[in-house]
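INFO  loader      accepted 1 record
INFO  loader      residues=136
INFO  predictor   begin
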Amino acid sequence: MHSKKIFIFILLFIFISIPTAYAGSIRGTLYLAPELMHRVSPTDTVYIIAQAQFGPSQPLAMKRCRVMDLPMDFTLSDNDSKMPGLNISAYPDVRLIGWVTKSGFAYLESGDFQGVVDNVRPGDGHVKIIINQIAR
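INFO  predictor   done
INFO  writer      dumping tokens
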């Protein structure tokens, strides 16, 4: 009977701890649409950011790579925050934006290629972002 209580306690601890550990992160894959491959260079800069769906427009998290790295599995978490106090875990819904920029600047410019996914919840683990449109 005692070992059964310990087993149940361990299971409860695991189920309570797992969502908390991943609540401030989002995992997925970033793709470039095949029809855009001829319009970019392998060394062009790619950014992926998370921003609050409803809230400040500053990025909650950001990563950088190059076109040659795509498709790329990613994790954006509170550890990727660039501004203190702005964290993925602080918002119930976020927008993910991936884009290719020729300039290399860390902000989206008109003419960049982008992909957007709205209403992503912190803790989501299978988000697919496809860069397939021109930013206006």
